[in-house]
Design goal:
Layout (H helix, E strand, L loop, with lengths): L1 H43 L3 E6 L4 E4 L1 H6 L19 H5 L7 E6 L5 E10 L2 E8 L1 H37 L6 H27 L1
Antiparallel strand pairs: 1-2, 1-5, 3-4, 4-5
Length: about 200
């Protein structure tokens, strides 16, 4: 009787182990599927993602980060993060509290990047955004305002000189009109000066 019961117990144990093995395989397959899906999502994002471990090694790096950080060569999982970071200030962010800074990287005709760091239990996360086009548009806007301001100052100066000259020899009936011209010229000049000052402060 005992060998018979032992065989039944072994059979039950075998079935349980097989069932557990199947569940583990399903769970592993599910984890792999979710990981692949997450990787596809991250690769589709228009931002760079760098994940480092506690020992400052690269755990994950997407293609956008490779492009934004320059010619980083063959950087794979486990590579020291020093090989990836092109700037000492960016490297120092890995030791500092979570922060966000904008950097200019001189390669590829100049690239502006916005880098945000986040502390995780297993390391640090760097999120890198390309700010180059935004910076170029901002520079174009700034240059336009400066050029337009200077171009407007010249005719306004001429208008003031002409109005003052006419006012010196004006008949009483024309004086109010000429004084209005002068006030408007002063107002426009003040607006342009304020606009140029704002651009300089910015």
């Amino acid at each position: 009787r005992f060998p018979f019961f032992r065989d039944i117990e072994l059979q039950k144990l075998s079935i349980a182990l097989n069932d557990m093995s199947a569940r583990l395989q399903d769970a592993d397959s599910n984890i792999r599927s979710r990981r692949e899906e997450l990787t596809r999502i991250i690769e589709a994002l228009p931002i760079g993602i760098v994940l480092t471990g506690i020992n400052r090694s690269v755990r994950y790096l997407n293609n956008v980060a490779r492009a934004l950080l320059g010619d980083v060569g063959d950087v794979g999982k486990g590579t020291p993060v020093e090989r990836l970071i092109p700037n000492r200030e960016i490297y120092d962010m890995l030791d500092a509290p979570d922060a966000r800074k904008i950097f200019f990287l001189p390669y590829k005709n100049g690239t502006w990047v916005d880098i945000c760091t986040l502390t995780l239990e297993s390391g640090r996360l760097l999120v890198i955004s390309d700010m180059t086009e935004e910076r170029r548009l901002e520079e174009t806007r700034r240059n336009f305002i400066i050029e337009a301001g200077h171009d407007l100052q010249t005719p306004l100066t001429s208008i003031r000189a002409a109005a003052e000259l006419l006012l010196e020899n004006a008949v009483p009936e024309d004086a109010p009109l000429l004084n209005t011209v002068l006030r408007q010229q002063e107002r426009m000049t003040s607006l342009i000066d304020d606009l140029l000052l704002l651009v300089k402060l910015d």
